[in-house]
Design brief:
- This protein is an alpha+beta fold.
- The chain is 26% helix and 39% strand.
- The protein contains four helices and nine strands; from the N terminus they run E-H-E-E-H-E-E-H-E-E-H-E-E.
- The longest helix is centred in the middle third of the chain and has 13 residues.
- It is elongated and about 60 Å long.
- The chain starts with a strand and ends in a 19-residue tail after the last strand.
- The C terminus is likely disordered.
Length: 176
């Protein structure tokens, strides 16, 4: 069954690693729907969160192929694991004197933050699940969305265990 997969990877923080990972997806003809990369609590280690659509067998093959890449330290498909996944969006909405109050009320109900107010536009910031952000975008569409930018999803497995204890012992290399 084709479903969204969330894959978390820990990789060495070196130039070219992102290119090698995304090239693997390109060669296998898989579209990356969402990609977020950032440093972790371990020096020299970055964390990638990739969201893609794949069948069960294909997802296992992708995971196995990711482990073959030299700079990949750990791969985890969190599709079946309880996790917390969030995205961030900035939404610029056209505002007038007549619609400013309803837009403010929508932002408050959605728990979005107003980060900039101008005479003809307002920028809202929202963090949440894909569905929550989609819902706010749909609600604001009649007012006129001037610009929309979203981050990729970031995910963390729910438990008291750290996801990276085995990485503490990895030899660390720093990007020059």
């Amino acid at each position: 069954m084709l479903r969204h997969r969330t894959i978390i990877m820990h990789v060495e923080d070196l130039p070219g690693v992102l290119n090698r990972v995304t090239s693997l997806f390109r060669r296998r003809n898989y579209n990356i729907e969402s990609l977020a990369v950032g440093r972790t609590e371990v020096p020299g280690v970055s964390r990638m969160t990739i969201v893609m659509e794949a069948h069960d067998d294909d997802a296992r093959r992708i995971e196995a192929n990711l482990y073959k890449l030299v700079n990949v330290l750990r791969v985890e498909d969190t599709t079946w694991t309880p996790n917390v996944t969030r995205e961030l969006a900035l939404i610029k909405v056209r505002t007038t004197a007549a619609n400013r109050t309803p837009v403010l009320q929508i932002a408050e109900l959605s728990r979005a933050h107003i980060v900039d107010v101008a005479t003809e536009a307002m920028i809202l910031e929202i963090t949440g699940t894909r569905d929550k952000i989609d819902g706010l975008v749909e609600t604001l569409a009649p007012y006129g969305i001037l610009e929309l930018v979203r981050t990729g999803a970031v995910a963390m497995v729910r438990s008291a265990e750290a996801a990276t204890p085995a990485l503490q012992d990895q030899p660390q290399t720093n990007a020059a």
